[in-house]
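Sequence in, structure out. Go.
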Amino acid sequence: MPTDEAPAGAVAGSGPVPCRVVVCRDCCCGSPKVTGVDHAAQTARLRAEVLMRVSDCLDVCEQANVVVVQPSAAGRAAGARPVWLGLVNDPDATEDIVAWVRAGGPGVAPLPEILDLYAFAPPRRAKEA
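Output:
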């Protein structure tokens, strides 16, 4: 199971991380099915700047590449929920995500208007009987 990875240069116990990022891979996201994207560079950029983990398929392949920004404890206390971003297929979008996360992310910093264009409601999974 994937684990959270601290950004490059982070020191354990150096303070709270503002929020976490989950990057979908192992399906359509991060594969040659999404053309013209340097998937490795996108993942490396996020990993270098924010606390992130890579997940298996999040079941929203029509939105590839998918990035989920999870709020910090402070964000959750403010009522924030994870923000799902789809079609994150250009380096500028990745930079916008990095900047938002470093500003505090959901519940702490407002969602930049440009990222609102990528936001979508995650699918509801049917409960198993």
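Check: The CA atoms of residues 29 and 65 lie 5 Å apart. Helices lie at 39-49, 73-77, 91-103, 113-116.
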